[in-house]
Structures are given as C-alpha cells and as structure tokens.
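hey
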C-alpha cells in the first residue's frame, strides 16, 4: 500500500535551516506529483509546496516567500524540503503526500 515516512524535523532557532526527507513506497513514485503539507498548532493542514513527477516544475505557497526548496530523487523514491530562514510561524508538523495519503509527519519547532 501507499506509505510515506517523513524525517528530519527538530528544534531550530529563528533564522535557522532544516531539511526534511520523505521516503515513499507502494506506488510508481516517478510518475506522480509529490506534495509537502504542514499543520500548525490549532490550524488546519495547508499545502506548502509541490513538485512535478520529473522534478522540473515546483510551486510554493505564498507564505514560503522564497525560503524553501522542494526537490526529489526518483532513483531513491525520496522527496525533500529544504527550509531556510525559518520563522516561529513555521512551527508545525510537516507531511508529504499523494493520493490523499499522509505519513506520520515530522515536527518542526522554531523558537528562541
């Protein structure tokens, strides 16, 4: 079955960086768009970024403001989210997704 396992979250100071990873399985990864979502405390889940199947096209939510980079490695069935200049409002659980299936998420906390 379709499965995603996110990793790479943690605590970071404002202005810091983290790179999240997502391991996908159960489908032909290279044929599908991949998404990163997040859910902030007390808020609904929101789309952060998406990347086309081949990796040539990306889109970001307005709040990203050029700070994040989504990428993928189709040889490894992996998706990544490089996050720079992190802000306290980026504190959230981050999920990768396709087919309305999500992993368990990885927690990112930005705080001084």
């Amino acid at each position: 079955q379709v499965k995603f396992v996110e990793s790479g979250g943690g605590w970071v100071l404002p202005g810091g960086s983290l790179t999240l990873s997502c391991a996908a399985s159960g489908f032909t990864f290279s044929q599908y768009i991949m998404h990163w979502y997040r859910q902030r405390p007390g808020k609904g889940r929101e789309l952060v970024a998406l990347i086309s199947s081949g990796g040539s096209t990306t889109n970001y939510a307005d709040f990203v403001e050029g700070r994040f980079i989504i990428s993928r490695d189709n040889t490894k069935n992996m998706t990544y989210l490089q996050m720079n200049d992190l802000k306290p409002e980026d504190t959230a659980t981050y999920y990768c997704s396709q087919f309305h299936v999500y992993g368990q998420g990885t927690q990112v906390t930005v705080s001084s």
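The radius of gyration is 13 Å. The first strand starts at residue 3 and ends at 7.
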